[in-house]
Amino acid sequence: MLAGMAVAIGLAPAPVAAQSERVRDTGAASCDRWTADRRTPETGPAIADEQWVIGFLSGIGYMGLGELKPLHGISDKGVWAWVDVYCGGHPTAPIEQAAAAFSVAHPR
Q1: Which residue, 49, 33, 43, 42, is CA-closest to 92?
Q2: pLDDT tens string 84-101
Q3: Residue 27 pLDDT level (bands cut at 50, 70, 90)
Q4: Comparing C-alpha atoms, which of 30, 26, 56, 61 is closest to residue 44?
Q5: How far apart (Å, rounded) are the C-alpha atoms in residues 22 and 7?
Q6: Is the separation of the CB atoms in 101 and 87 below 8 Å?
Q7: What are phi and psi of 75, to 5 degrees?
Q8: Rounded distance, CA 19 to CA 36, Å?
Q9: Helices (H) and strands (E) in the chain, counts
Q10: Could you give the dihedral angle defined by the CA atoms of residues 60, 66, 70 and 76, in that order, rounded to the nearest 10 degrees?
């Protein structure tokens, strides 16, 4: 139970300033950057963003101790499409927040 609470607390949206202390580089960038990078797919910036999100979600699955498996049953392209929609509606949110929201929407 304690592990589950720690994961839940870690996924709770935090103020942007606090997120920049926890997450650096791609995850701390805004959804505006995600959207701009994804306009030119298969380029370095788009691939880096996409792989950061998959890595973040893989880490949640790894640490979820069997309870959280956000990548279960969904392709990478499906994840990216979901983040596209999220970022379209939350352009100033950090990419980390989009990935965390995906994990909440897709816990298993």
Answers
A1: 33
A2: 999 999 999 999 999 999
A3: confident
A4: 26
A5: 14
A6: no
A7: -80, 165
A8: 21
A9: 6, 0
A10: 90
